[in-house]
Specification:
The chain is about 30% helix and about 15% strand. It has about 190 residues and is α/β, with parallel strands linked by helices. The two termini are about 15 Å apart. The model has no long low-confidence stretch (mean pLDDT about 75).
């Protein structure tokens, strides 16, 4: 399951999809794009994409409709609301959250961090749907080396469960300047 901000570099996103599908580690992807709003791209198999050409076409049709706003709250809410069980054939269920700017609300003027109740809802969603991991990737210079904006989204299991407010999630967060494809394949190969 991938959640990507709409303003991310389209060529890099498409190259990353290519790498994910060609890595041999991905059975299906579910994509939610976001900027000031979020929308799930509905793949042909209960919302999931099981082939590269369908996923690429859906991403290309939707890119360019966003702005320089990244409403993380809307992205998580849409991911939770639109989720369906993945098609058979995969060994693990992994969430990848990719953003190129920090979290801002719908108006784009004020930072809008993930609240503790939103983090709790996200963690409950991950546990209830038996996810294996939740990774967060910050793209480019807008993040520097700072990961605190992504921490509520990234989660690693602790004694079999995801926990809100856990401070052991640093391995589930990456800040990348380039080569998003490598980072995505590296993450989905971990669980």
């Amino acid at each position: 399951s991938a959640t990507m901000s709409r303003e991310d570099n389209p060529e890099e996103l498409l190259a990353s999809l290519d790498q994910l599908f060609n890595s041999g580690t991905v059975n299906a992807v579910r994509i939610v794009l976001f900027s000031n709003e979020a929308s799930a791209l509905h793949g042909p198999i209960d919302g999931w994409f099981t082939n590269l050409s369908d996923a690429r076409a859906a991403v290309m049709a939707e890119l360019g409709e966003g702005g320089a706003v990244a409403d993380y709250d809307a992205a998580l809410a849409e991911t939770i609301a639109s989720f369906t069980a993945p098609p058979a054939g995969g060994d693990s269920l992994v969430s990848l959250f990719i953003a190129s700017v920090g979290p801002y609300g719908k108006d784009g003027t004020q930072p809008d961090w993930i609240s503790s109740s939103e983090e709790r809802a996200w963690v409950d969603f991950l546990n209830d749907n038996d996810f294996d991991a939740s990774y967060a990737i910050g793209l480019g210079e807008n993040f520097g080396s700072s990961t605190y904006r992504l921490e509520p989204i990234a989660a690693q299991r602790d004694a079999g469960f995801f926990k809100a407010g856990a401070n052991n999630d640093s391995d589930a967060i990456k800040i990348v300047e380039d080569d998003l494809s490598y980072s995505l394949v590296d993450f989905v190969s971990q669980p």
